[in-house]
Write a structure and sequence with these properties.
The chain is of the alpha/beta class and 292 residues long. The chain is 40% helix and 16% strand. Helix 5 links the parallel strand 4 and strand 5.
Amino acid sequence: MRLLIAGNSGQVAQSLAELSSKECHITCLGRPELDLLKPETLQPAIDRTSPDVIINAAAYTSVDHAESDEAAAFAVNCDGARALAKAASSNNLPLIHISTDYVYDGRSDSPYKENDPVAPTSVYGRSKLAGEKEVRSGQPHSIIARTAWIVSPFGKNFCKTMLRLAGEHPKLRVVSDQIGSPTYAPHLATGLIELAIAINDQRSEVDWGVYHLANGGEASWYDVAIQTMLHAEQCGLASAPVEAIKTAEFPTAAQRPPNSRLNCLKAKEKFGIVLADWRSGIKVCVERLAQQ
């Protein structure tokens, strides 16, 4: 099987690239070869790679900057998603589009299911939701894979930030009243490949639509920081004590959902896909960073 990944510099794209093999050849293309803001680059990218499935891992992900740069966020996350869905449909190619927990407002007391009402509270969340709608209308043979709280050895993320700050400050102050589904990007990448194989093999029988893909369990950012410091100490990296604080004590430009937990039972029932517990992802992430 051949996969074309839109994007090559993000955490998920880099995690997918690591998994390329003879059985599943993965090509990650970013700008300028594949540019969601330049639809004319999409068909040449498809012609060059001859994929069986496309995965859209390209996105505007700067949540706080999006609040003052709405046009840029919508250009990539909505308009770009529309262009890629159109190209996928024109070539009769299934599309997996990665989306986010930020499409929910976070007021639910339970982990979110795919059919729960969406009500994003940030520009980023609204742009991603608009992109979901464009993908589903532009390519009916598409899967919207919502995930959450991505960490990895790549790029910028919470885990890497905590490790950096632990070497600069005697104590870390971390929000404890936002709860979600921390997800290790390489675990997500494995799940995405399993999903791509399933929809390629069973295209006529696939229940297209929205699915949640995240590591098992739930945690607050404080919990993630505690686990990060625990493994940092074990790996000989700088660590620091962690103090729990409230969201109000750490204001940000974008409003975060207080509850970002995702119920991933549908992906298990339909495709047999289950990602490991989030703690195992943090452990592997810190161990990999310690080796770098």
